[in-house]
Amino acid sequence: MDEEQATFNLSDQPLTPTTSIREAGAIWLARLASAGLDDDDDDELDERTRERQRHHARPTIASYETALRIFVRWAERNGRECLGDLQVADLVAYARALRKRSYDLSQRAAAQADNRRERLSERTVHAYVRPLFGFLALADSQGAISFRVAAARPEVSRVLPRLPDPVAPTPPDLRRLVRFYDKPQGEERERQMLTRLRNAALLHLLFSSGARISEALGLDVGDVARDRRILPRVIVRGKGRREGTLFIRRHAEQALQRYLSARNWPPAREPLFIAFDPRTGGGRLSRISGWRIVTGAANALADRLVWEGKADEAELLRQVTPHTFRHFVGYHLLNEGVSLAEVSQILRHRSVEVTRSFYASYADVQLQEVHDQFSADPWPDEE
Description:
With 383 residues, the protein is mainly alpha-helical. 56% of the residues lie in helices and 4% in strands. The N terminus is likely disordered. One of its GO terms (molecular function) is DNA binding.
């Protein structure tokens, strides 16, 4: 816990106008890393419990650190060393520079021989700028900058690229894909059987619950099973550390039962989905591996569909990712007449407005069908 104790100590440091931007960034990141934790019980809590208490997930903090590192590099190149040097105009200029990509963001970009620099996508520009407001809000609260963040935000927002409204793509029918790993393709050794049962359990869990891949891969055995029985409801901490419930239907329960039985029902604190390859065997399955399991099955099934003369369906399957299961659950529930508010809870969205924005195009089609079915027609012509 020495590293975390150092983080606690750093997070207590005050900010002043003379504090360097680089040092201030380290203090802000230390505060994010320690938010929600109590340094008095360092030795009493296991690492998993501490991660659940932490207000910000490690990947989130890592993305903020990347954004801040790029800003600090830009600021120092432009003669802004301390917090007191920063002005609103600097933030506006930085946002414009990101849009133009008029400087090297990384060593990789600097090493390009032909000096070509790709423009950053609109979402990447927003991802680099958004964390700065949280960083500067801390400096503002301690009087370390000469402007108010609330006044700077609209000025910076004016020069940011406009983002398209998020819309969930219409997913292909995944009811055949989810059973891809259910049956062996031939004679199996033990490791091959375990791998197949794990892959089948993952697909069934995604199909049943609409879980995010990070939520599924973050589960432990004890999260889904008690006394060798699969739970019908699983509590997870999803995006933004919001607590939600995954619903395990019968087909997913059976797939998980077969998988855990083959693993001889490991201890509750063991990861649910683990790697079986010799190099990383026993460790938690990575996000990349989870994607490969899904896309590998989708592409193999797509090849079969081509032979069956279903080229259009095959093309849709080649675009499947783990998140496609989530969209499929949302669209299927709406198609069955489930309300947006209920779908929002099942998918664990932040609010029903998020669900409405993602499935707006579907709602319009549904409203059109209702309108066509129930609207009045004019009287027939009188003869």
